[in-house]
Amino acid sequence: MCNRARLASDPETLFERFGAGWADGVVRPNRDPVELFPKSKAFVVRQAGGARVVDLMLWDVLGGAASWPMTNVRNLGLPQWRRLAAEPQHRCLVPLTEFCEWTPDKHRVGDGPPIKGEMWFAVPDQPVFAITEPSAATIAPPAASAWCLPSP
Q1: Phi, psi (rounded to 5 degrees) for 93
Q2: How far apart are CA 139 and CA 128, in angstroms?
Q3: pLDDT band at 88; cut points 50, 70, 90
Q4: What's the pLDDT at 4?
Q5: How many structural domains compose the chain?
Q6: Whole-number average pLDDT of the chain
Q7: Rounded to an integer, what distance in angstroms lies between the CA atom of residue 37 and that of residue 106?
Q8: Complete DSSP assignment for the chain
Q9: What is the CATH number of the domain that holds 60?
Q10: Terminal CA-to-CA distance of the chain, rounded, Å?
Q11: Cβ 70 vs Cβ 62: under 8 Å
């Protein structure tokens, strides 16, 4: 995944789809997050007290500890990823309606230099699905885990 995704859904749909309710202390934003990108807030589904809850978190698995926001776990051989994988409290589902990948080739658009284009993907038979790191595979609950940090 190229660090861009969308969730064109409301929390009530997430409650139904994932069998969840609001996490304690969540203040629903005036506008639900739709465009997801590094360091943006996103709805996530996680375990709390033995139940699934919908929470609002920042999309940055290292919580600002790296020079840039990290949203993909790609190598479980590295210590920072092994630590996260070993701690279940850092796992959550990131519900989406579509995600983006860049085109492999650059294209001319106007007078500027060639740029890569966006390709958006969805799961036709699942209007709301979830991603998980490190594989970013689309899954159906409950067999998923991703790593998230609570929003300050």
Answers
A1: -95, 145
A2: 10
A3: low
A4: 84
A5: 1
A6: 76
A7: 22
A8: --S-EE--S-HHHHHHHHT-EEPTT----SS---EE-TT-EEEEEEEETTEEEEEEEES-TTTT-SSS-------TTSHHHHHHHH-GGGB-BEEESEEEEEEEEEE--TTS--EEEEEEE--TT-SSEEE-TTT---B-TTS---B-EE--
A9: 3.90.1680.10
A10: 25
A11: yes
Nearest Cα to Cα of residue 62 among 149, 151, 129:
149
- pLDDT more than 90, % of the chain: 14
114 vs 5: CA distance, rounded Å: 23
Identity of residue 74:
R
Beta strand pairing call for 5-6 and 98-107: antiparallel
User: In the structure, what pLDDT confidence band is assigned to residue 107 with cuts at 50, 70 and 90?
Assistant: confident
CB 26 within 8 A of CB 54: yes
Residue 92 belongs to what domain range?
A: 5-150
pTM of the predicted protein model: 0.75
What confidence category does residue 15 fall into, taking pLDDT thresholds of 50, 70 and 90? very high
List the structure tokens of 68.
Answer: 């840039």
